[in-house]
Amino acid sequence: MKLKFTLIFALVSILATAQFTEKQLDGVEFLQMEDGSGGTIYGFTKGKIVIGPNFHIRGDGSRIYLYYDNEGITQGFGMAEVPSTGLMKLFEREDNIMHGKAFQMTGNQLNWAQIYKNGKIKKITEIAYTSKLSNRKNCIGNCIDGFGMFQTSDEQLLFGYFKGMQPITPVIHVFKSGSMYQGAMKKWEREGFGKYKYSSDGSYYIGMWKKNKRHGLGIWFNKDGSIYKKGYFKKDELKINM
Predict the structure, then answer these.
(1) What pLDDT digit, counting tens, does each position of 204-232 carry?
(2) Mean per-residue pLDDT for 129-152?
(3) How far is CA 76 from CA 17, 45, 87, 130, 219, in A?
(4) Angle subtended at Cα 223 by Cα 219 and Cα 228, rounded to the nearest 5 degrees
(5) Domain ranges, ordered by start, for the chain
């Protein structure tokens, strides 16, 4: 009975953190509202519940990126930024608390990298990186099963966690063009919630991804912060405007 309960619980957890499909969009609306403290919140709601990708620009200029499941609970990848100082904190969440891999940078400097369990630090993972060790060509740190910085043969830079030599959530992926992705990744592909800033025009997309394409609920901003597109994307194109 215990095994059966565990399997059911795991299945419910997987379904809760999966992104919304086109068939689940009935009643979903775009959200843009003032937070009462000089900031603005962008995202989506279903009824009175905040769901999906959410972007909060606070009155002090700091920015919070979170993903809400169908019960309004934060899950999976999240990020905090302070553009004025260059601070970036990337992390995983489960049931509204820090749970999983996380790291924080200020500019190009790593502040810390650690793994959380139920909101508390379980393991420090930065030692190989800060010691300038390497277990792989073009790597600083542990780019096989740990935390490190890896440069590909075509000058792409990946900074974050690796498993089986593949980058996994959370990760910063910088392209030779200067475009940058911060978010969830699976098997070298953007998969799940994340932010992508395009070097070509300075615009940035905050939302869901599938196999490197914009796919799911998302908001695409112009460089000046105005909204370019919003709604449900499918294979890189906006399919349902909201």
Answers:
(1) 999 999 999 999 999 999 999 999 999 99
(2) 97
(3) 7, 18, 20, 26, 18
(4) 40
(5) 2-241
